[in-house]
Design brief:
Length: about 170
């Protein structure tokens, strides 16, 4: 498995690297508030719509979920995302053991990082030694980088990598 075929510009210090690590840690530790806060508007909307359909409630009652843990809907909305990521990664320990590559700039609004298997204790790994397992794509919205389900799916398919977010049920 290799990174996407196109040659993307690499940025070695990009906010999405820390965001990817934060996202993985939030999934592993079941921190629903952090998960929700790091998702794009489109991804949030998809999860709210999924929640409304499964709960058989009007979409307007599912809209506007807050990252505040006091919002009773939060765990139900992000739960399927967390379960899908844990299943795809092989559990919390595997998830926490993934390395995060330098960022690849697709365009001004889209960036992705590769998630590397068998990262080990070494903090710097030569690119030819990488074994990417997944990637996470981020979009720039409201002056922030946010994880995006659609961009992750598209770029994962292009790279022939397993989509970490694909099995949300």
């Amino acid at each position: 498995m290799t990174p996407p075929a196109k040659a993307y510009r690499v940025q070695y210090e990009h906010p999405t690297q820390l965001l990817a690590s934060t996202f993985l840690r939030a999934v592993a530790t079941d921190d629903a508030a952090v998960l929700w806060a790091r998702l794009s508007r489109e991804t949030r909307g998809l999860l709210e719509g999924r929640y409304a359909a499964h709960a058989r409630i009007a979409l307007r009652r599912a809209a506007g979920v807050s990252a505040d843990p006091a919002d009773a809907r939060l765990a139900a909305v992000v739960g399927p995302l967390r379960e899908a990521v844990l299943a795809a990664a092989g559990g919390p320990q595997t998830l926490l053991g993934l390395g995060v590559s330098a960022a690849r700039l697709v365009d001004r609004e889209t960036v992705f990082v590769l998630l590397l298997l068998e990262f080990g204790e070494e903090r710097i790994v030569r690119e030819e030694e990488w074994r990417p397992a997944h990637l996470l794509a981020f979009v720039h919205e409201s002056r922030d980088w946010l994880l995006d389900l659609g961009a992750t799916a598209d770029l994962s398919a292009e790279a022939e990598l397993s989509d970490l977010l694909a099995e949300i049920r």
